[in-house]
Specification:
Blueprint: E1 8-12, E2 15-24, H1 28-36, H2 38-41, E3 46-49, E4 56-61, E5 71-79, E6 83-89, E7 95-106, E8 109-117, H3 121-143, H4 160-166
Antiparallel strand pairs: 1-2, 2-8, 3-4, 4-5, 5-6, 6-7, 7-8
Family: Belongs to the AHA1 family.
Pfam family, one: AHSA1
Protein name: ATPase
Length: about 170
């Protein structure tokens, strides 16, 4: 089954950004823990090691195969339980991914707004479906569902054209 893509394009600070939103029927602190506590992250995307107070952690994705190495992620903003802004580094030292996760709560429902600057349509064709996949894994993990039942092949390449067209 191919889920419908939910990502949209916005312009923020003059930059094109892909934005995805998910809602949870739990308090904001629960979703915050799911995106910041290594043991909770492990259920849907990966783990981190290191000291976040130092401003950098080593993050390793766990659904990308056994050969994936941990990568340094810089923490730019951490305002519990509402804002987490991080970036990874490419081999040349330039930012590879700049990720912003914003959480709001209203009447017991928490909304996660995930965004990433994006300018290359071909990169968007790969990255957009990837974030749909991971965010749906987060939803499954938080609902107590089987995260392994979320199949990346249902997202990519089926959703690629949606993201390629958003950033063309």
């Amino acid at each position: 089954m191919t889920p419908d893509p939910t990502g949209r394009r916005e312009t923020r600070d003059g930059r094109a950004v892909v934005v995805l939103t998910r809602t949870f029927d739990v308090p904001v602190e629960d979703v915050w823990a799911a995106i910041t506590v290594s043991e909770r992250l492990e259920r849907w995307i990966g783990t981190w090691t290191g000291d976040p107070a130092a401003g950098t952690v080593q993050f390793r994705m766990n659904a990308e195969g056994e050969d994936v190495q941990a990568e340094p992620f810089t923490i730019h903003r951490c305002e519990p339980p509402h804002v987490l802004a991080v970036s990874s580094r490419a081999a040349d030292g330039e930012p590879a991914f700049e990720l912003l996760l914003e959480l709001t709560e209203a009447d017991g429902t928490t909304t996660l707004t995930f965004s990433q600057p994006m300018s290359d349509p071909e990169l968007a064709a790969d990255v957009g479906p990837g974030w749909e996949y991971y965010l749906d894994r987060l939803m499954a993990a938080e609902a107590g569902d089987d995260v392994a039942a979320i199949d990346f092949n249902d997202y990519h390449p089926a959703q690629s054209d949606h993201y390629r067209q958003l950033f063309a």
